[in-house]
Amino acid sequence: MDTRFYTAGSCFAEELYLRLLKYKFHTTSHPFGITFNPLSLARQFQLLFAHERYHPEALVYQDGLFHSLDHHGSCSGPDKAKVLEDIHCNMIYAREELARSHCLVLTLGSAHVYTYLPTNQVVANCHKIPSVQFNKKRVTVDESVIALQTVLEPLLAKHSSLRIVLSVSPVRYLRDGFEENNRSKATLLLCCDALCSWNPRIHYFPAYEIFMDDLRDYRYVADDMVHPTQRAIDYIWSYFKDAYFDERVRTYFQRMDAYLALKNHRVLHPQSETHLHFLQKLEATKSALISDFPEFGDAF
User: Do the bridges between strand 59-62 and strand 103-108 make them parallel or antiparallel, or are there none, so unpaired?
Assistant: First the structure.
């Protein structure tokens, strides 16, 4: 498949990344890890564009680990040199993949930002550093729009084939309270609307609205009463497929689901004749997939 995806933002971006990988699309995940607020996302893309090594002074030491305030905790580690080298290598790879991508998916999670007081830097993750070292605020719609416009404008100008899909994460942040969570989401929704109006190559996918207005049932909410269940995410993904893929690719999704169901079948008696027939059926299904959809063949 010629279409290359790059996903960045909240944990919903990670969910989309995993599903695109499942169907053998060439997909790159943002090297900074899960990021919720638009200002941190904008800063991360500026760092990608800068072509500079990540500075050792940018790391902080907390609970036996070196952390980057621009990165998710999954990028942290006890060896400072290794953390820096991994960050550097991952940024080089992501920069190259972003330049080749046809679709950038950005999912925004929260309009609340935390500023690290010693450096006055808006952070992507607080890494359990004492809260007294941070100032928290909700950014405005204009602040969010300007921050993202600053990085998206040169990106769109440089890569004429790039399209951008914006979305607001269906995950609610109820630790801030019902009212503040809704104000935060409203800020992000208005930010997305302004960006879509600003450039016709930017589109909006209503993940938050599908979850809140269509799946109005706690059966679709995880035990923490905040995150959507896998069933809910599958439902939202079905809308995403219908919105951004043509009939041929949607047929491929169905065929691929059938193949994966066979492939993941639990084997009880691997030496039996029945299992040997099953393996032949699995290989025939795979061969038919590659024959009918050769653009995905190299991924198998």
Answer: unpaired
Diameter of the chain by CA atoms?
68
Instruction: Read off the pLDDT of residues 38-85 as tens digits, 9 standing for 90 and up.
Output: 999 999 999 999 988 888 989 999 999 999 999 999 999 999 999 999
Compute the residue count for the chain: 300
Q: What are phi and psi of 166, to 5 degrees?
A: -100, 145
Q: Domain check: are 165 and 258 in the same one?
A: no
State CA 211 to chain mean position distance. Answer: 17
User: Is the domain of 124 the same as that of 206?
Assistant: yes
d(CA 183, CA 180): 5
> Could you report the per-residue pLDDT of 23-43, keeping only the tens digit for each?
999 999 999 999 999 999 999
Do 261 and 236 reside in the same domain of the chain?
no
